[in-house]
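thread: overnight batch results

M.L. [08:02]
morning all. the overnight job finished for the chain we discussed friday. pasting input first so we're all looking at the same thing
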Amino acid sequence: MTLVVPTIDVSQWETGDDSVRSAIAKQVDEACRSIGFMQITGHGIPDDVVAGFTDALDEMFSLPDDIKRQYRPSRPSINRGYAPPRSERLSYSLGVDSPADMFEAFNIGVEVAPRAGDAPDMHSDNIWPEPAVLPDFEAKAKRWLDSAGGLARRMTSIFAHALGVEADFFESFTERSIDVLRMVNYAIQEGTQLEVGQLGMGAHTDFGIVGREPAGLGNPRPEAVHALFAGRNG
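M.L. [08:03]
and the structure it wrote out:
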């Protein structure tokens, strides 16, 4: 069976009449119920933000290994900074034992002041490369995080419409959301010896309401943003 990921244009969500908004919500509802993935066009993220983010990724992962490792967090529970290859096994989220994953990642998140009742490390400070190392990395990454966050909030309003609940239904769940931007590099260095069954990133569950990522270079729809959803109804 061929797996088809639908492409949905959300450009008229803010300006369209009730029939237009209902049509968009219906497409999103069908995608969530059937496959759990979709490609979003008309998202409004400027081209220069996407280009800047792409440059930031290349710049980060082109750094020497010893420099990147300087930006590791002090403990694994802090989901910030650099994660080197073989430092994670994401298949554990499914209760599956596997060789360590080969991807490397750099993580940032929204900067929110902690308050009583927050889980430890939930809103940890970001770990940024010094400007002398990567002059524009922080600005480029933050612009993408802010833009993608705005799109995610628009998607939750579409979810609410599709579910037939109040338009602000998800706001109480997202006002202090722990948005995390995970920049991932799957390239494996030449000469690396792999274990049997070792993958770039093992099968796993993503937690949250909506995940989003830019459609990569060479994708048939490079103007799209990929979205994936937890809690799919079947």
